[in-house]
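It would be a great kindness if you could assist me with a short task in structural biology. The full record is reproduced below for your convenience:
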Amino acid sequence: MIPEGGAIILNASINSFKGAAAFSVYSATKAAVRSFARSWTSDLKDRKIRVNAVSPGPVETPALNALVPEDQKEGLHSHLASQVPLGRLGEAEEIAKTVAFLASEDASFIAGAEICVDGGAGQI
């Protein structure tokens, strides 16, 4: 049970608002996660529980690397990085730092928000 004044951080994706070929089901589920953050914020306001979503862009993870055979991994990374204004894939630690911030008292007035940790990929 989440205690009064707690925080819930959901993992969404920039694919919830950016179309990507062959990712329609994934994108739809991530859009639903974003909607949960909004709805649960209203549902849990009386308990002062903050609900937010983090939407990563392309991040180098085992799941990303499993999308293609080993000999195509570098090409996938290059292609995805070329779509990110900062010119690189994100790192899991960058997502974790955002989650830690949202869970902290430093984010005490952030609720129902979506924080994109995407190097600008969803913004430009």
